[in-house]
Recover the amino acids of this structure.
């Protein structure tokens, strides 16, 4: 407000002074158009405007003379008069006693008729000079500035009154608007305080589309994500408890029956076998839970290196062949060579093992499993297809959830914990790949795993160097054994 008021005041002052100077210039032009204006002024018949002072300054007989209709002289600096007579337009302001501030405009004037009628022309007192001729003179027009000053003083008083009043009203209005503006924030805070861990179903009411509305929507989305996370946590805890409760119940039942009375060694052996199976199942389940817990916490240690994926998959498939032989399942492997990826061997082995284990587990006897590795632009595509029981279409998006089973009534006789595909999805995520499934009931399933490839040449060179180093190490070890044998 202060800057605005100062700008208004200075702007108005500038405009008033500029218009005032323009008025003086227009008046000078008008006076110059009068014929024999100097004679008219000398005769005292010129009617000037109220408060106006008009005079001519000129040199006669090397003396500076002046003429005015008021027969009065306002002393001006001779240098300024000389500048005007010589052809320069001059503005100046002088504080004249008994007249206040006057604004002067001096303009050069050359009369059409140099001979001026006799009259009173003087410098300090009235002197009559006969036969005077004026070839160059300075027209001087002056007007009082009191009306400009009155207008500016009036504006200043208005501003001095209006600025504090405006600030006061603005402050009161600002407080009122601020309270209204922050009222939704108070509502958001109150609602947020009422939301607890046990009740995340409440949402903040969104009534506007402005910044506060977007804030409320963002908080609602955050609460929704938290609610889903808590629900997943509760479901995870419930499922884990359920999975662990069953083997513990079996172990307790077996030990109780075994301790009730003396039994035959075969019966004890059978009970111990059951207990061993359940302990092995619990150990596998706990290891999987620990793996997912470390993954969620970001504390899983991974060692990424270049892997020739074809040889790597062939090794894993050779380990799984014995499981296929138990169910008379044919395992066909078709791998494209020279596909190199960057990954953690332990994690990728677990990934392929889980996919193949599921394929073997849910494929009937005398079925078939096909493993293929292909290139798709800069991606390595591993597909594992089987002729198993298949997955319903509505269940295909949920099979990667933890503890999810398509057949809710399926017993644990197949050894499944419902965590295998969840672990697969985590491994794929950390390797920046994708995993998807296509399946039909009673026709089988196809799992597609896509991993980004590294530069083939770089990967092959790396693998070659590693193999050379391993061969040298093996040669050194053999030489050491031979020397040791010779020594003995």
């Amino acid at each position: 407000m202060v800057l605005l008021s100062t700008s208004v005041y200075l702007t108005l002052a500038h405009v008033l002074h500029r218009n005032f100077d323009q008025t003086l210039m227009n008046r000078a032009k008008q006076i110059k158009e009068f014929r024999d204006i100097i004679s008219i002024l000398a005769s005292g018949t010129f009617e000037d405007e109220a408060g106006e002072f008009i005079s001519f300054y000129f040199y006669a007989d090397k003396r500076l003379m002046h003429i005015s209709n008021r027969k009065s002289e306002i002393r001006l600096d001779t240098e300024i008069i000389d500048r005007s007579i010589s052809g320069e337009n001059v503005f100046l302001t002088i504080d004249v006693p008994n007249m206040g501030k006057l604004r002067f405009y001096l303009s050069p004037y050359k009369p059409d008729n140099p001979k001026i009628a006799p009259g009173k022309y003087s410098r300090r007192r009235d002197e009559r000079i006969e036969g005077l001729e004026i070839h160059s003179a300075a027209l001087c027009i002056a007007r009082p500035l009191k009306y400009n000053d009155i207008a500016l003083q009036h504006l200043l008083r208005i501003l001095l009154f209006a600025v504090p009043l405006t600030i006061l009203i603005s402050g009161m209005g600002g407080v009122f608007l601020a309270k209204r503006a922050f009222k939704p924030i108070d509502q958001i805070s109150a609602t947020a305080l009422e939301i607890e861990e046990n009740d995340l179903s409440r949402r903040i009411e969104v009534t506007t589309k402005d910044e506060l509305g977007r804030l409320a929507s963002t908080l609602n989305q955050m609460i929704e994500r938290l609610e889903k996370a808590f629900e997943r946590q509760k479901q995870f805890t419930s499922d884990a408890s359920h999975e662990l409760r069953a083997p513990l119940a079996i172990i307790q039942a077996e030990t109780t029956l075994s301790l009730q009375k003396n039994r035959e060694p075969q019966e004890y052996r059978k009970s111990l076998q059951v207990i061993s199976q359940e302990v092995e199942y619990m150990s596998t389940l706990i290891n999987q839970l620990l793996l997912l817990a470390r993954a969620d916490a970001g504390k899983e240690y991974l060692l990424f290196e270049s892997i020739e994926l074809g040889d790597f998959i062939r090794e894993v498939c050779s380990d799984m062949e014995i499981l296929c032989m138990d169910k008379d399942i044919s395992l066909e492997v078709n791998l494209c060579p020279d596909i190199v990826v960057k990954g953690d061997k332990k994690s990728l082995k677990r990934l392929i093992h889980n996919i193949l284990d599921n394929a073997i587990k849910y494929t009937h006897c005398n079925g078939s499993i096909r493993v293929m590795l292909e290139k798709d632009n800069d991606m390595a595509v591993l597909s594992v297809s089987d002729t198993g029981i298949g997955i319903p279409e509505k269940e295909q998006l949920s099979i990667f959830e933890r503890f999810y089973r398509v057949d809710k009534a399926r017993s644990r006789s197949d050894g499944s914990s419902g965590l295998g595909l969840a672990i697969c999805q985590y491994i794929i995520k950390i390797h920046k790949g994708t995993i998807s499934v296509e399946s039909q009931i009673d026709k089988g399933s196809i799992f597609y795993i896509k991993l980004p490839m590294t530069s083939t040449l770089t990967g092959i060179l790396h693998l070659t160097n590693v193999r050379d180093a391993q061969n040298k190490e093996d040669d050194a070890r053999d030489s050491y054994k031979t020397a040791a044998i010779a020594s003995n």
Summary: The chain has ten helices and twelve strands.
